[in-house]
Design brief:
- The chain folds into two domains: 4-104, 2-Layer Sandwich (Beta Polymerase, domain 2), CATH 3.30.460.80; 186-455, Cytochrome-c3 Hydrogenase, chain B (Orthogonal Bundle), CATH 1.10.645.10.
- The mean pLDDT is 95.
- Helix content is 42%, strand content 18%.
- The chain is globular.
- It has 495 residues and is an alpha+beta fold.
- The strands form five sheets. A four-stranded antiparallel beta sheet has the order 1-5-4-3, with helices on one face. Strands 2-13-14-15 form a four-stranded antiparallel beta sheet.
Amino acid sequence: MNWIESKNLETVSLKEIPVLQIDELTSQLEKFVKEGKRLVQFFGLKDGERIILYAVLADDNLSKIYSASSKFDNENSYTSVTPSVPSAFLFEREFYEQFGIKPEGHPWLKPVRKGISGINEEEIPYEFFKMSGEEVHEVGAGPIHAGIIEPGHFRFSCHGEIVHHLEIQLGFQHRGVEDLFIKNSHRPLYILKLAESIAGDTMIGHAGTFVRGIESLAGAAVSKRAKFIRKIMLELERIANHLGDLSALSNDVAYLTGNAAFGALRTKVINTSMLVCGSRFGRSLIAYGGVNFNINSELKSKILSNIKELNDEVSLAAEVLFTSASVMERFEKTGIVEAESASEIGMVGPAARASGLSIDIRSDHPFEAFEYFPFHKLTLSSGDVFARAYIRFIEIQQSIKIINELLNNLPEGELYKNIAELKPDAIVISLTEGWRGEISHVILTDAAGKIKRVKVKDPSFNNWFGLALAVRDEGISDFPLCNKSFNLSYCGFDL
């Protein structure tokens, strides 16, 4: 394999990234994915008049990352890899949308984000999939929804109440996040706050992913204590969001006791996060070179007490939830995504693990505190709403154990260190297991050590099409339940 091999958070010189002819890169990408490697990133960079395409693959069994590139001078097309690598379908659409290089033979070439201008500064029209027939009808929902919800358009093609196809159009709140990183690269605090704001429910996940990449480029040695505190907060973020999802799932099947109980438990967790850093969502915890807030002995005791109570209360609430006949009638065998489909489209996180895919960055590509402790992946096999709900419960239990272990082994050390200048002409791939799944930030620097590209991928980018598959052949009334069982981010996708 003539792609460069590295590991999570390993800085590599850009000169070491192999430059392949585009046909060679795509054929090798197809081959490696068929052999079991996974597509992590596929993105472009404008370098003068030239466009450079970067592709990143992961070997999760060996904890290795492989990267290669291809350069486009005057070429405006290449042969699409999506027909043989379905997980590339959004990546190729995004690359075309941003740089105008067409993946010939792509089966579903259309915009990724509404309002994005094409290569000629004109908005590319979005054409929905159409079904014909006297008994076929379409149902549109959004982008404006009832209640407090982000904008997204769902177009159902139905026969009676049965959904044959769902198309999801996003991008209504595109903020230009990746461009903002470059325009404000001279403002370190600004871009750290920007990373926190990629997805408001994943502040620790995204900020940590970005900062670890910067620290790698700077050759910074973060103290073990700071790493442990970061991981404690990451697991609290995971628990809080999983509890919120169990509350929402309970609500969607009219189990209001579960809705209230899990919602109250979520409040206990985010209030615990607030004890650490003053923010229920972890804002301002993470600093370059470490953390801004300490966990002293008194706070440690309080957190341990809170999560001990939480463990007992969650176990009781979950036992009642998952033994309720009316709940299980709605959860089981609803919204199934088979393992083969989940793998082909590149699903990640709890949704993938609920379909039997053994993928978890904490184990496959360890970072920070997970470098010091063994981590065991958890999977289920049914791929339905029940599995996506139950995987949350067992991950909550697992995260409580992790926090206990980290707190009881919290080492001494400084909270943060000043970091040096970034390495010039370098690239780093930073992976994190956020509560929705794999978060990926790729950061590239120029000859002066300034950031010239930040490529962000929220796990929702991988998983929205999983929701579309889940509702096929289901009653349209089951869409809200399937949707909540994924609980994907609109803004994390829209960027």
